[in-house]
Amino acid sequence: MTKTLNVALIGGGFMGKAHALAYAAMPMFFWPAPAIPHRKVVVDLTEEAAQEARDRFGFEEASSDWKAIVNRPDIDIVDICTPNNSHAEIAIEALKAGKHVICEKPLAGTLAESVAMAKAARASNATTMVAFNYRRTPAVALAKKFIDEGKIGDITNFRGTYLQDWSADPNGPLSWRFQKKIAGSGAIGDIGTHVVDMAHYLVGPIDTVQAITSTYVKTRPMQQGGVDKLGASDKSADAERAEVDVDDEVMSMVRFKSGAVGSIEASRNAWGRNNFITLEIHGTKGSILFNYERRDELQVMFADDPVNSRGFRTIYTGPAHPYGEGLWPIPALGIGYGETKIIECYDFCKAIMNGSQPSPNFEEALLIEKVADALIRSGETSAWEKV
Ligand code: SOE
């Protein structure tokens, strides 16, 4: 019989919703499922918020006491979907209690906390994972397959961008995402780390970086209430304003340990860009292009194609491609953000059942945090900084 894994979800916001959906849907997509995740307890800041999340996300119980829950013997998985500054405390407690831990990105609010989390993971027998879901988009996994098969030769160049516009409006609310003491950094940690994760996945570790960081909107109206309000939904030009002390944008050059070079950009202030994650990779034998806003497509150019038919071709991902066995039966029926989270949940449960570590686990996510830290440092010094 398929094993059941009891999940304690800490945080019932936007990411809590995405993870709850994945727990419910994973066995519907990937069958036989490696395990059946059971939505046991959801924890939020107040009993009221937790009960609402329980009813909405289909959990059995609700609680406002994360510490008691992560120490409960009937919990197998602790899933952390809280703001960045609480990741370390919850994860370390859960690992000490022997739980498998999946944590939303970035690993933590500070490098010191990330180091402590990786250390706690090393000291435990548990499986850890950080929820960098975009590398699990089938087209990105297909790019990895082509690279591993040598189809584009040795990689010389990587260009990665993650552009959004939800914080371009200066009257958008000052949520925790704009406060260094909670978020650690702005676009760098929030979305730049997704690109760093994919750069590490596809090309290998980054060695040195040089960055320009900018904060365009220096103050924002204080947010009313604790819910994470992305964008300008809470616009109020009259509300009291407070300082934004994180970056709105990072532009950087990077050098990989392999010798490849590249650029990484992230901005949440790029009007007209919604979830514009692009990857362009050049190799000695071809090129790869991916744009998350057209996430079912991978564009590839193979230099050994006959000269008269050279050019980018578009592959629509489907059953013949990574994760295709569990997704929809015809290419281009289309996958969404939810499916990337379902795949993430599948890989996490598989690793738990195999007693292995998925990628990126806490150890690998620490390397991503080291790159983020180097980007922040370089933004201050304008110098090339070692990771
Ligand atoms: C906001 O920028 C955000 O919710 C990120 O925090 C997520 O990681 C990203 O996938 C969607 O946008």
CATH superfamily of the largest domain: Dihydrodipicolinate Reductase, domain 2
Small molecules bound: alpha-L-sorbopyranose
- Estimated share of beta-strand residues: 15-25%
Continuous helix count: 10
The CATH topology of the largest domain turns out to be Dihydrodipicolinate Reductase, domain 2
SSE topology string: EHEHEHEHEHEHEHHEEEEEEEEEHHE
- Ends distance: 46 Å
Q: From the helix content, strand content and strand pairing, which structural class follows?
A: alpha/beta
> Can you count the beta strands?
17
Percent range of helical residues: 25-40%
Low-confidence region ranges: none
The assembly state of the depicted protein chains is single chain
Shape designation: globular
Mean pLDDT across all amino acids:
96
The major β-sheet equals: 9 strands, mixed
CATH architecture of the largest domain: 2-Layer Sandwich
Cα Rg = 21 Å
CATH class of the largest domain: Alpha Beta
